[in-house]
Each structure stands twice: as C-alpha cells, then as structure tokens.
Amino acid sequence: MSEILTEIDQALARSDLKRAETLIARQIRRTNDPVERAELLFRRAQSRLMDAKPEDAMEDLQTALALQPQRGHDADIGVLIGDTHFARYELAPVGFSDREDTNTALQHYEAVIEAHPDFSRLAWIFYQCGRIKLSQNDMEAAARYFQRALEAPNHTPDVRAMAQERLGFVALFEKRDPAAALEHFRAAQKVATGEEPPGWLVQLNIRMSHAHLERQEYEDALAAARSALRTIQSNSTGAHRVALPEAHLAIADVMAVMQGYESEAIEHYLRFLQYSKRPPGIDVTWSKVHETIGHLAFRLERYQQAITAFEKALEINPYHPWDLSLRYQIARCYYRSRMYERVVETIAEIEEGAEDDEVRDWRVYNLQGNAFFALEDFQAASEAYQTAIDLAPAGENGVEKARIYLRFCEELMQSAEE
Fold first, then answer.
1. What string of DSSP letters covers 272-307?
2. Predicted local confidence at residue 1, as pLDDT
3. 300: which residues sit within 8 A by CB, 6+ positions away?
4. Of 119, 142, 164, which closes a domain?
5. Does residue 106 belong to any structural domain of this protein?
6. How would DSSP label each residue in 225-254?
7. Contact indicator for 44, 4 with CB cutoff of 8 Å
8. Is residue 66 included in any domain, yes or no?
9. Quick check: is 17 in a domain?
10. Which of 95, 119, 143 is at the close of a domain?
11. Distances, alpha carbon 219 to alpha carbons 212, 228, 245, 281, in Å
12. Better-predicted residue by pLDDT, 217 or 198
C-alpha cells in the first residue's frame, strides 16, 4: 500500500491528476481497510482541489475524516481542509459565496500555526491567510501575513514570488504607492520559479503596467502590458486566456495617454469589449472604456464613432457623474460634422437634464451660438453668445472670439432690418 501511496503522491507533485485519480480509483475498489481508504480519499481530495472541484474535495475530506478522525489534527490535513474551504469561497458563483468558508479556513490555518510551529509549509499558510484577509478587505492584516510568508522557512519556492506580488498589490491599490509596488513586483520577478499558478506571470505584468502608468512611465508601462499579452498568446490554457480582456485593457489605458497611439488604443479597447462578458446592468469600467474611445475618436476626427461611444457610455452608466460633459462632447462632434441642427437639439437636452435647472458651463452656450450662427439664426446666436460671455470666468481664453461673433450677429441683424 505504501508504494501505491508514494506513486500517487508523485503523480500529484507532477500535477498529473489523471494518473493520480486512476491509481486512487483502482486502489479504492481493492481495499476495505478504513485506514487505507481514508488515506486514498485524502489524496483524492487533494487531486480534486487541484482540479478546481472544491465541493467534491470537501465530500472526500468528510468521508476520510469519518474513517480516521485523528488525522484532522495533522498539519497537512489541516492545511488541505483550509485550502478547500477557501477555494470553495473563491470559486463560488457570484452571489453564492459564503463568508463562513473563509472564517473556517482561517481557523484551520491558525490551528496549524499554533500546533505545528515547525511545519515545513508555514510560508504557504501565511500566504493563504493573507489572501483571506485581502478578500475581507483587511489590507493591513493581509500585508502582515504576506511579510510573514517571506520570513518563514520556505519549502514552497513559488510562495516567495507570490507573496511579493501580493505586497505589491497592497502597495499599489491600497497605499497608492506605485514606487513601493514596483519594488515588490521586481522582487517577485527575481525569485519567480516558473512553478507559480497558471496566469500568475500575466497578472504580475499587468500590475507592473498599472504601477508604471501611475508614475507616468509610459514606455515601461506599455512594455509590461505587452509582455502580459504575449504570454497569453503563447499559452492557450484557460487560466491564461481569462486574463486576455485585462491585458488588452492595460495596453489601451497606456496608449490612451500617449501621443500617436490613438488608433491602436481604440483597437485594444474594442478587443477588451469583444473578449469581456457584457455586464448585465450599470458598469463603470465599460462606461469608462466607451467614454475614452469617444475622446480618442474625436482626436482622430472620427466623429460618428465618437458620438456612438459617448452615447454608449451614458447608456451603460445612466448615473454618469459627468453626464452633461459627455453630452457636450456629443454636441461638439455634431458641430465638427456640420450637423448644426443636431447641435441645437443636443444642447437643448443638456439644458433639460441639468439637475439645478441651470447650465453653468460657458462653452455649452458658445457652441450653441456657433451652431445658430451657422444656421443663420442670428437672434438666437446672439442670445447664446451673450449667455456664454456672462458665464465665462475672467480671463478665459476664447471669450473674445465670442464677443466678436456677438458683434457680427448684431451687425447682421441690423443690416437685415435696414
């Protein structure tokens, strides 16, 4: 029996789950010994957990512990139970995760830490505890656990890289310290073994891109995001492909702030939308993507594409905080397209949608004046220009031009009367 268990353990170490499951199934059929069956079930639970089937793993664990309850005090089984509960929480469908799973996992991990201070996989336990604290939005506790993972005797080489990446994540998104984040990310790169979970390197490069972008290091940000995309394209596994939308989004976000990359940025944003699942309701990210496409298309003088993008941004997020601003951009697109009637209609919608019943942005009325002037409605144009002049801050660029056109309107109306 020991030889079979060794062979199963070797298969699990190679992540050869099919071989491990075959050996386990064959041996379970051959034995009625409760101790042997328990050992086989513990290993099958590990295999099923590695195969992202925590419910099946939990069922095997419960059966095995009923056959051999004393094994529940062993460190390796305590960790397996904790990992299974945490995986069940992480892999649950949206809206069906149970916070009790993270609490139970944490209890098992802490029990192992207390009862087995010399356990060889303490670094892994600290790392998992840190991830649980992240899921609970307790960033300070998470960072402490990740630091303990770095300081613990490390018999799981990939943990050191993964803990550094998580510390970088906390520094970037919680502490808003991209420089510190990059230090951790570079440390993770340096100690990475290649044994990290599938897709881990992709996420590391995406995070590095975000950090460089925060520091306005655009070339480095673009290089990191492109590295993430290349890694995905060279590996067709599901764990890599799931990050494809995020990689395209990272590239697009960098290109959007660089001169000369507008067209490429739009293409990557469209790829993000293509590979992402359409959100069922309001979604800030999708709205922001469409809004940015609108601005980029405007710079490229693709006015119809810009109009469509701005309208989509408002459709996906009807409570957009810059609703009036986006509608103003739509009006500008119509003006550039010489669709002056649509400019007038859009500005009327802006006025109707103003929450305080008053639009205070002088540019709106300046644009309205320009549209009326093009339509040769000089009375309406003069009223719009006057409103723009009254609202404009002192010293505002462009106001003098509005005054000139106001005088043109007055002269043209006077000529018509004569």
1. HHHHSPPPSS--HHHHHHHHHHHHHHHHTT-HHHHH
2. 63
3. 262, 263, 266
4. 119
5. yes
6. HHHHHHHHHT--SHHHHTTHHHHHHHHHHH
7. no
8. yes
9. yes
10. 119
11. 8, 14, 21, 35
12. 217
Closest CA to 367 of 410, 324, 328: 328
Q: What is the pTM of this model?
A: 0.87
For residues 245 and 117, give the distance between their C-alpha atoms in angstroms, rounded to a whole number: 42
Q: Which of 368, 351, 367, 347 is nearest to 359 (CA)?
A: 351
For residue 95, the model assigns a pLDDT of: 66
For tokens 């975000």, what's the residue?
A: 210
Q: Output the pLDDT for position 282.
A: 83
Domain that holds residue 411: 360-418
Q: pLDDT of 258-274, one tens digit each?
A: 999 999 999 999 999 99
Q: What are phi and psi of 339, to 5 degrees?
A: -100, 75
Dihedral pair phi/psi, residue 195, rounded to 5°: -95, 5
161 contacts: CB under 8 Å, gap ≥ 6:
188, 189, 191, 192, 193, 196, 200
Residue that has been written with the tokens 């095995």 in this structure = 64
151 vs 21, 145, 160, 181, CA distance in Å?
A: 35, 10, 9, 19
Give the number of other Cβ atoms within 10 Å of residue 151's Cβ. Answer: 12
Rounded average pLDDT over 175-204: 93
10: domain CATH number is 1.25.40.10
**Spatial CA neighbour of 365 closest among 320, 328, 394:** 328
Domain count, the chain: 2
Model confidence pLDDT, tens digit, residues 107-154: 999 999 999 999 999 999 999 999 999 999 999 999 999 999 999 986
Q: What is the pLDDT of residues 279-307, one digit of tens each?
A: 788 889 999 999 999 999 999 999 999 99
Residue 290, domain member (yes or no): no
